[in-house]
Amino acid sequence: MDVLNFWLDSYKDPMFLKFPIATLVLAFVGFLVFALPLTLLAYLDPEPLRKYKVQQKPFQVKKYFWPSIGRHCMNAAIMAVVICFLWPFLRLISNGRIVDGAMPAWYIIVAQILFFIYFDDFILFWIHRALHSGWLKRNVHSVHHRITRACAIDNAYFHWIEYLMIGGVGTVAPLITGTHIYVLYGWILFRQFQGADGHCGYVFPWNPAHLIPLYEGGDYHDFHHSSYNGNYAGYLNYLDRFTQTYSGAYLRWKESRALAGAKGFLKLNWLGGGDKKADVELGGNS
Q1: Can you tell me the distance from the alpha carbon of 175 to that of 115, in angstroms, rounded to the nearest whole number?
Q2: 159 neighbors 141 (Cβ within 8 angstroms)
Q3: CA–CA distance, 201 with 22 (Å, rounded to integer)
Q4: In angstroms, what CA-CA distances link 248 with 103, 129, 140, 251, 275?
Q5: Nearest to 49 by CA among 33, 38, 64, 60
Q6: Which residues are registered as beta bridge partners of 99?
Q7: Is-contact 165 127, C-beta < 8 A?
Q8: In the chain, domain spans
Q9: Would you give the DSSP letter of residue 25?
Q10: Local confidence band at 281 (pLDDT 50, 70, 90 cut-offs)
């Protein structure tokens, strides 16, 4: 009976609505806010912006827009059920780690957000590598790879297992350091921007995210979609360089853009070590 009371009482905690429920709603709505304008851009495909496209082929907006919206809704509903069921355990873990009070100093907020970005990308790299092997590759990750010419909304086109894996790790870094609930909200929103930006199919030189050291963006992940191999990291390039999975074709594409005079595209701090398999499959895009 004590266990049952503990279970039921945990849902009376105000943090239940502020932490798992609010972050899920923010993630759901925030992604659409970032992704829909970029998806509309891909649908219209205006000629003046085609110089910023990664692939000079038509986007697959008509084919995957509504399926992506459907999966976004379905996966969010599954996540809601999971986090509601697990909340009593999550409450124990997050108690004293996710706080609601006076905001920390600005430099602490900046330091935490930067840590979240780099730690999250580190974990996602290894999850992504696991998704490219065995049963997970054949039955889970292959769903996302049906899309070869991605636009922003396609970041929602996930198998529900992959969605739980990727969505679940988003709060790991905040739980490690402990953070204010509003800082967590900001991080969740930035994560949605990353997802939309990474799949948008464009690389804009004025994108402020490129101020983050090692941040790549839409071009980096687009090469992964067009080949199924190479560039496994989400947005940062160092792990692909050190594990020899950096797409050589991607680097050649960056070089060709730079030689053609495209400003803001060249980030070749980590030249070399390309994935040979990816080179072969991506040769048509280089």
Answers
A1: 12
A2: yes
A3: 29
A4: 44, 18, 26, 5, 6
A5: 38
A6: 180
A7: yes
A8: 2-202
A9: H
A10: very low
Q: How many CA atoms lie within 13 A of 3 on its CB side?
A: 1
Structure tokens at 209: 């995210």
Query: Tokens 């990308």 — which residue?
Result: 121
Nearest to 176 by CA among 122, 115, 111: 115
The residue length of the chain stands at: 286
With b for 16 or more beta-carbon neighbours within 10 A and e for fewer, the 41-63 pattern comes to: bbeeeeeeeeebbbbeeebbbee
Mean pLDDT throughout 158-166?
A: 96
Tokens of 227: 């080949």
* Residue at 189: amino acid letter: L
**CA pair distance 227, 278, nearest whole angstrom:** 6
285 and 150 in contact (C-beta within 8 Å)?
A: no
**With the C-alpha atoms ordered 44, 48, 49, 53, is the resulting torsion angle positive or negative?**
positive
Report pLDDT digits (tens) over 178-228. 999 999 999 999 999 999 999 999 988 888 898 899 898 778 888 888 877
CB-CB neighbours of 269 under 10 Å: 10
Instruction: Please give the sequence-ordered ranges of beta strands (E in DSSP) within the chain, or none if there are none.
Output: 98-99, 179-180
Segments in 97-211 forming alpha helices (H): 106-131, 134-136, 142-144, 160-168, 172-177, 181-199
Q: What is the dihedral of CA 159, 162, 164, 169, to 10 degrees?
A: -160
Q: How many Å apart are CA 162 and CA 67, to the nearest integer?
A: 16
CA distance 142 to 146: 6
Q: Are 155 and 31 in contact (CB under 8 A)?
A: yes
Instruction: Determine the residue type at 286.
Output: S
